[in-house]
Design a protein that fits this description.
Layout lengths: L3 E4 L4 E4 L7 E6 L10 H19 L3 E6 L6 H10 L3 H18 L15 H13 L3 E4 L2 E4 L16 H7 L17 E6 L14 E3 L1 H13 L3 E7 L3 H16 L5 E7 L2 E3 L2 E2 L10 H5 L4 H9 L7 E3 L1 H24 L18 H21 L4 H18 L6 H22 L6 H5 L6 H22 L3 H13 L2 E6 L2 E6 L1
Helix pairs in contact: 4-6, 4-7, 6-7, 9-10, 10-12, 10-13, 11-12, 12-13, 15-16
Length: about 500
């Protein structure tokens, strides 16, 4: 089955082909580094990490470019609000970006260009657009004239330029803007007091947002490339503006062979917003759950679908992640060095339990690959992994001797590492998974006190002094102690 992807521009799934055989050129719009990354960023970059991983697993050499928007209105506003130099804000948030993405097991892109490194290229593009009558100089900067290329309007959103003309009518009177029409967008912004600026043929100023991505993508890939990605909210105006200015500058269309957009993230049914008090940074969430649990919660949905993030979704992800890790850990511990027996050829029709089980797992692996080839359908791929987890657990119970057990465990380990690990990215490394947990120093401080209370509790329960036993339980709770009664006696830990 060939890889099929949903192209936003064509509004359908199409067979994926590349401009250069065996190579994929992919540009994904990066973060504006004025603050810490939030849940929406996690959704976007996990989605394109998944795409990146599957393309490489499919044999492609992927050249992945993801930018940093390091000059923008939001950065300037944050600098004014805090009194902190804008460059310091940028550097701190780029550093925390890497920390957040690394925690989510997102592979690094090949290149992370910064907008401020490409101002000269932006000026060159703007000059060319002016010369070709696609842009004009106004009293407050330079604007792209959308009506100079009306055929390009609405390529990603389906909006009709005629309908827009009939509606707002292009009125910009008394707005203070020098643009001729409300549809036009800024390529260069005239300098304002206190803002960072760069010299240009139109005076001191700074680039508009849209021209930044055009300059970086064209500089790296030339006139066109295979995949342009980003969040659903970037389709308009950002990505359509890129199409306008890039294609009018180069004279080549299309700018990108495929436009891929990931879906929104809502919180308990509402759009994530600071004003609604439901704004979650990545750090907010991974302070509550393991980062790989968050990753599983996000990949357990098709990348184009909206996600409603809530406690139940995270709880479900935690439970499923625990199931996968339990089987993976068992396989790691069983797959020890030593002689392994040859496993039989998988056969679904066999009456031999081992042979049939291997056949079922082979079928699930095929289904996993088919799901990923169907527009990177990670939800269906996760379902195959969860089904395989049950089967792998059963499989590891079938070994009759140590050689069989090691061979089966090795098979289970490799099956999960290839699917849940390499592709979905939800497995920790073996060293991390098998590492003994560090002893909490607080346990040593209160150990004698807790053991004394547990002894008192045992006496109280033996004497059926339930009020005293309950009081001791309350004392333990106040210390943050959780007690689990087992056949070998009570076991305690910190909450």
């Amino acid at each position: 089955m060939p890889l099929r992807v949903h192209d936003t521009r064509r509004r359908e799934k199409v067979v994926f082909t590349t401009q250069s055989p065996g190579r994929v050129s992919m540009y994904v719009c990066g973060v504006t580094v004025y603050d810490r990354c939030h849940l929406g960023h996690a959704r976007c970059y996990i989605a394109f990490d998944l795409i990146h991983r599957w393309l490489e697993a499919s044999g492609y050499d992927v050249d992945y470019v993801q930018n940093f928007t390091d000059i923008d209105d939001k950065i300037i506003i944050r600098s004014i609000e805090t009194g902190e130099d804008w460059r310091a804000i940028v550097e701190r948030n780029i550093e925390t970006y890497y920390q957040d993405m690394d925690s989510l097991n997102i592979l690094r892109a090949d290149h992370y260009p910064r907008c401020t490194e490409y101002v000269e290229s932006m000026i060159h593009i703007i000059e060319d657009l002016i010369e070709k009558n696609h842009a004009y100089v106004a009293n407050d900067g330079v604007y792209f004239h959308v009506d100079s290329a009306p055929e390009k309007y609405g390529q990603l959103t389906g909006q009709s330029i005629d309908a827009v003309r009939q509606g707002a009518g292009g009125r910009v009177d008394k707005t203070g803007s020098g643009k001729r029409d409300h549809k036009d967008f800024a390529l260069w912004k005239q300098a304002k007091p206190g803002e960072p600026t760069w010299p240009s043929p139109w005076g001191e100023g700074r680039p508009g947002w849209h021209i930044e991505c055009s300059a970086m993508s064209l500089d790296h890939f030339g006139t066109s490339f295979d995949i342009h990605g980003g969040g659903h909210d970037l389709r308009f105006p950002h990505h359509e503006a890129e199409i306008f200015q890039s294609e009018c500058h180069t004279g080549h269309a299309p700018l990108a062979g495929y436009w891929l957009h990931n879906g929104f993230v809502n919180i308990d049914g509402e759009k994530m917003s600071k004003s609604l008090g439901n704004f979650w940074t990545i750090q907010d969430i991974i302070g509550k759950v393991d980062p790989l649990v968050l990753r599983l919660a996000l990949v357990n949905a098709h990348y184009r679908s909206p996600i409603d993030m809530n406690e139940q979704l995270l709880n479900d992800a935690q439970r499923n992640h625990d199931r996968i890790l339990n089987v993976y850990e068992s396989a790691l511990r069983m797959a020890t060095d030593g002689r392994q027996h040859q496993l039989p050829t998988p056969d679904l029709t066999s009456t031999d339990p081992l042979t049939k089980s291997l056949g079922l797992l082979e079928r699930l692996a095929e289904g996993f690959a088919q799901a990923m080839d169907d527009d990177f359908n990670s939800r269906e791929a996760v379902a195959k992994v969860l089904a395989a987890t049950k089967q792998l657990q059963h499989l590891m119970s079938l070994g009759t001797d140590e050689g069989d057990k090691r061979a089966i465990a090795t098979y289970a380990k490799e099956w999960l590492e290839e699917t849940a690990g390499t592709i979905l990215g939800i497995l920790p490394t073996p060293d991390v998974l098998l590492a003994e947990p560090e002893e909490d120093p607080r346990k040593a401080e209160i150990a004698d006190q807790v053991e004394a209370l547990l002894a008192e509790r045992a006496d109280a329960r033996a004497n059926k002094d339930w009020p005293r036993a309950d009081a001791i339980r309350d004392q333990l709770n106040a210390l943050g102690v959780v007690v689990k009664d087992t056949a070998d006696g009570p076991v305690w830990d910190l909450q």
